[in-house]
Structures are given as C-alpha cells and as structure tokens.
Amino acid sequence: xxxxxxxERAFNRVATPFEEFIHAQTTTGLILMLMTIVALxxxxxxxxxxxxxxxxxxxxxFVGEYGVSKTIHHWINDGLMAIFFFxxxxxxxxxxxxxxxxxxxxxxxxxxxxxxxMALPALIYxxxxxxxxxxxxxGIPMATDIAFxxxxxxxxxxxxxxSLVTFLVALAIVDDLGAVVVIALFYTEQIxxxxxxxxxxxxxxxxxxxxxxxxxxxxYFIVGSIMWLFMLESGVHATIAGVIAAMAIPxxxxxxxxxxxxxxxEKLNDYDKYPVATDHMMHEKQKAILQNVKDKIDAxxxxxxxxxxxxxxxxxxxxIPLFALANAGISIDFSSAYETAxxxxxxxxxxxxxxxxxxxxxxxxxxxxxxxxxxxxxxSTINQIFGVAFLGGIGFTMSIFIADLxxxxxxxxxxxxxxxxxxxxxxxGLFGFMWLRYVAKxxxx
Length: 445
Fold this sequence. Notes:
The chain is mainly alpha-helical. The protein folds into 2 domains: 8-44 and 62-187 and 237-253 and 301-439, Na+/H+ antiporter like domain (Na+/H+ antiporter like fold), CATH 1.20.1530.10; 257-297. Helix content is 70%, strand content 3%. Helix 5 (104-129) runs antiparallel to helix 15 (344-370). It is globular, with a radius of gyration of 24 Å. The chain starts with 7 loop residues before the first helix and ends in a 6-residue tail after the last helix.
C-alpha cells in the first residue's frame, strides 16, 4: 500500500466540479475580505489622494480612429467584471443543465427562497426611499455575494450538512441570475439600437459556432470580445455580454464517456506492447499514444467546463481583488458614520439586506415547506435556514456594482450606499455565522 506524504493525499484527491466550485468561491471570499480591508486602509490613510487618482487615470485603446477611452476604474467595472459575469453565466448554465437547478424537486426551495430574498429587500428599500432621490437604488439590497456567503458556511465545517451548502449555492445562483436581469432591464439609461443589434448578431454567430460543433475556444473569445465592444457602445451595461456569451459556449463534450473508455482501453493495451528503455524512459510510440489519450481527454471536457475550470483562478486572484480595491475604498469619518448610516439610502440598504433577506429567504422557505410544495434540505433544520438567510444578506460585490450603476455621477449617494452595504454585510455575515455556529443545531437525522 502506498504511503502518502502529509500533504500528498490532499493533492492527489480527485475533486468533483461542485467541490472545485466551492473551493474557488471560498478562496475568492477570503481574498475579497483581505482586499476590502486594504482598500479601506488606503482610503483612510495619507495615501488616499494617490489611491483615488490612480483609479481615475485614463487608459486609451485605439485601432486607427476606433477605440475605447476609459479610466482604470471603468476598465475594471466594465471590462474585467465582464469576465466575472461570464463565470456567473457558466455557473448558471451548469446548475440548470446538470446541477441542483436541473431537478425541479430539489430546486423548488432555493428558487422560491431566492425570489423572496430579492423581492422583500427591494420592497423594504422602496418603502423607505419611495419618492426620494435614492429611489433608483432599490436593486442594491437584492444581491447576495456568493463568495462571502459560501466562505462563511464552509468555515463552519461539519456543523452544516452538504445539502445546506448546496441550498445556499443554488439560492445564490438564482440570485445572481435575478441581479443580471435587473441590471439589464432597469439600469440601462439610454439604448443605442444599432450597436445592440450588432451585439446580438455576434451572439447568434456564437450560437452558430456551437451548433456547428466548434469546440476550439479562440473563435468564441474573438467574437465574444466583439460582442462586448458592441454592448459597451449600446448603453446596456457591457458586463451583460459576459453572461450572454456564456450561454452560447458548448456544454456537451465531443465524445461520450463510453467512447472514451473504449478508446482508452485500446490505446493503453497498445502502450503495454512496447518495451521500456533501459533508463526507464518511454518508447517514442508510447509518448505518441499518451499524447493521443491526452488530446482525447481534453476533447472529453466541454469548452464550458474547461473555461469555468481555467478562469476561476484568475477571477479569484485578479478580477475580484481589483474590483474590491477600486470600489470598496471609502473615506470614513467615524464622527459622522452613524449619521450617514441613518440616511434614507443607507438605512434602506441595511434594512433590505438584513431584515428583507431574512424575511424573504427564511420566511418564504418556511411557508413553502409548511404548505408542502418544497422540503427541507437533507439533514438540515429550519433554524439553520434562518442562519443561511442572514448569510444571504452579505451583498458586497454585486450590491456595490449595482450601486455604482444606480447612482452614477452622484458621489454622495454612492457613498451612502457603500456605507450601508459594508455595515449590513458585516452584521449579516457575523450574525449568520454566530447563529449557525452556536445556536442552530445540526439535524440528528
């Protein structure tokens, strides 16, 4: 029996796509927390002016007369975040096709909980801000930050069941889909129809690539980038192009697992026919056989699966940290922090993310279970659903993103919104974690 070095077993363990997804989100959450702290320190330090100036520096990209001129802040929010939204699109598609949202019996509870967790916060916010200058921010408390929420749940270890983690993931995916729809429909001020038509024409080209069975990534990247440019010019937020492009990426492999098994057996039998050289190096024919098997393995993974796997790391280590660094840095005057938090925009967001999310997620879940149209996740309790509902109130990344869209050009309202988001997310995250850790007991089933 093989003896493993202390860490070798962990590195040799085969993780499922869902486990890889959870690991990626946990990593993202931890890095996001670190970069948020760095941004807040910089914004409240002697380097604050240089910090702000850096992200307002313009970068121009032109080819002849045509090009894009944006500040670094806009390049991050409109450009790099399109990759983040592309990942969201791939995750939504995977969950619908083969994940928790593919089984309607399992999906009913997180779908209903997500709808409640979007509707109630928006209604509470509008109840506080209706008719005021901050009324357009109703979409801000609708969002859940999947990375932060999952990180908090994973840190609880075996105190929460795998099915409860799955419930939160499915809920957050539906929540992300809702946020994308809200951004596309309600946070687009003016539409230029000609670029929008060209953008959708690009999408249909991507769909044609899919239908023709093209599994090479490069054509999708080129046409997807063109679609992003047209979407940028159309007035619809360019990040929506990332989600739409993800829908066109092939999710089925070129070869079935059965075909691969037969092929691999045949090739490995051929591999054994060749002698091993005296220095234990492979025969040239063996190298060729292994390369062919590797190519077949690559073809066995769909382009959507390969992209989701390869993009999670750069999104976790580059895109999300840069977004936090560019957007989370707010200069806080602690003497007036309470007064700011009591402004209608901040108050609406805090009430929406804390009270609204709990009433929406836990309340709708309880009602759906009581009337028999859904059932509790396996080995979970309604008390734990209550704790998860609080974690749903961590709205950080998407909430900040929507705040910048809702109050574009109004720095005072954006500041109030960010204060509300930070306060609500911190409280919701800590309370939800403490509730699940010390109050909500795991099911004995």
